[in-house]
Amino acid sequence: MAEIYPDTEQVKGQHPFMMSFCHGANISDTLTHHPVPQQEELMFVFPVIYRHDQNDTEHLCSYIPVLYLNSTMGVVGGLFYGLRKEYKPSMVTVATTTTKSWLIPDTINASFAIDVQQPPLKQLSNFFAQTFENPFVSISYPPFEKTVFYQAKVYANDIRNATGKWQWMYKNATISNANDSPNVFAKYWFTMSWPMNYEEFFG
């Protein structure tokens, strides 16, 4: 993993991950082509090495343990992909032209500001770009637990540096930003493959 993430410092006892705070609009599937309502979606993505069994090849994947949304339709759609989406009707966002904050009581408290003084970046940093590029892996909710894989493609533009502070309360732990945690703002559109089992995805 270190070879693929050369820009990521290894810290003993810690694991790097990406938080994605998104406002989604004009999102639809290839069957109905019907856009879901605009929604806020918070995604947490951990680069991991996945091995199907002892004799299998290791695969670098991006694991998503949970997502938070303020849209019931977005949650229902995500369940089809085997994603652990949670409906958070208490989510509050406040936005200006250069700042935005998200608050979910006892779960998320985050705020970010775009650095408009600097010119746009040419591309996402390697950590963000690679984490989106990896195959995504998720384990669906019980009682029908299954591991699913899919491929996402992100096409970013208007990429800018940002500053931010956040706290994530998850499973009796509080995870906070460090002083040097990188932050970036980007507008983007994306595509997703159908969810597949291991044999279907990796052949």
Helix-strand blueprint:
Layout: E1 18-24, E2 39-50, E3 59-63, E4 67-69, H1 72-80, E5 85-87, E6 92-95, E7 99-104, E8 108-114, H2 126-133, E9 136-139, E10 147-150, E11 152-170, E12 173-176, E13 184-192, H3 198-202
What is the β-strand count?
A: 13
Radius of gyration: 17 Å
Count helical runs: 3
Structural class, by secondary structure, is mainly beta
Overall geometric form: globular
**Low-confidence sequence ranges:** none
What share of residues are in beta strands?
35-45%
Biggest beta sheet attributes = 7 strands, mixed
What is the residue-averaged pLDDT? 91
Describe the overall structure.
The protein has 203 residues and is mostly beta strands. The protein has three helices and 13 strands; from the N terminus they run ββββαββββαβββββα. Strands 1, 2, 3, 4, 5, 9 and 10 form a seven-stranded mixed beta sheet that branches. A hairpin with a 3-residue loop joins strand 6 and strand 7 (99-104). The longest helix is centred in the middle third of the chain and has 9 residues, at 72-80.
